[in-house]
Automatic annotation (TrEMBL):
PANTHER family from the UniProt entry: MANNOSYL-D-GLYCERATE TRANSPORT/METABOLISM SYSTEM REPRESSOR MNGR-RELATED, MANNOSYL-D-GLYCERATE TRANSPORT_METABOLISM SYSTEM REPRESSOR MNGR-RELATED
The UniProt record lists the keyword Zinc: no
Superkingdom field: Bacteria
Gene3D superfamilies: Chorismate lyase-like, Winged helix-like DNA-binding domain superfamily/Winged helix DNA-binding domain
Protein name as it appears in the record: GntR family transcriptional regulator
Keyword Cell cycle: no
GO biological process: negative regulation of DNA-templated transcription
Keywords annotated in UniProt: DNA-binding, Transcription, Transcription regulation
An annotated Gene Ontology molecular function: DNA-binding transcription factor activity
Length: 251
């Protein structure tokens, strides 16, 4: 239905469905939608009705408002996969061309030595990179890497996948990682790197990855909150209460 009619269904709800189909099926991500005035005239409704319909779609994340510019369809969101894989391989699997800008690479004393199992006087490799997809900045990552497992890492070409380098150059297969996720707002430096406004929402991931129990990588990544979401599969199993768990647990 592309017309609004009198009936039991409120006009703002009818317009919302029209705009939903427009955003999901006809317009590309980031495209502008008609102005409030144009929508009101086209569908014969008040601007209050238009605001109600658009406001709900903004709340649903389907549309976004840009102050002084108008209302746009939301940009494509990437669904972050919670498994041990590189950004490069993940983007390629989605049909997106990844690229990486190395911001800095060198040797320094890590702030958290315990995660890499280093002595107090040992250095680690510090690598800061900007990750892009089809040329758009998507994530800023800052990682520490073990000098014992990855000697001369700073001499490698780090514009591609570090995980591929770890596997092919060093013969190491990362087999375990612990990852923590939280939310932050972008400070001025991060906002500039990611091409967002200061204070924009970010998803932050800290991953400590290892091989055969030996810590190799401690990396924190700041992902644009407007372009990423996390989907997890949940079930009713509680750790320690399954059929193979030890007896004596609570029920």
């Amino acid at each position: 239905m592309n017309e609004i009619v009198d009936g039991p269904k409120p006009k703002h709800a009818q317009l919302r469905e029209i705009l939903r189909r427009l955003a999901e099926q006809e317009l590309a991500p980031g495209s502008p939608i008609p102005s409030e005035r144009d929508l009101a005239e086209r569908y014969g409704v008040s601007r209050i009705t238009v605001r109600a319909a658009v406001g709900q779609l903004v709340a649903d994340g389907l549309l976004t408002r840009a102050k002084g510019r108008g209302t746009f369809t939301a940009k494509r969101r990437y669904d972050l996969q919670l498994f041990l894989a590189s950004f490069t391989s993940d983007m390629k699997a989605r049909g997106v061309e990844p690229s990486t800008e190395v911001i800095s690479c060198g040797q320094a004393a890590p702030g958290s030595k315990a995660s890499l199992g280093l002595e107090s006087d040992e250095y680690a490799y510090r690598v800061v990179r900007l990750r892009k997809a089809d040329g758009a900045p998507l994530a800023l990552e800052a990682g520490w890497y073990s000098p014992h497992m990855l000697p001369e890492l700073d001499r490698c070409d780090l514009t591609g996948s570090i995980y591929e380098i770890i596997a092919t150059r060093y013969g190491i297969q990362l087999d375990h990682a612990r990852q923590t996720v939280w939310a932050e707002t972008a400070d001025a430096e991060t906002a500039k790197a990611l091409d967002v406004r200061k204070g924009s929402p970010l998803l932050v991931f800290r991953r400590v990855a290892s091989s055969d129990g030996r810590p190799c990588e401690d990396v924190t990544s700041w992902y644009r909150g407007d372009l990423y979401q996390v989907t997890m599969q949940l079930d009713r199993t509680v750790p320690g209460t399954g059929p193979n768990s030890a007896k004596g647990g609570t029920t």
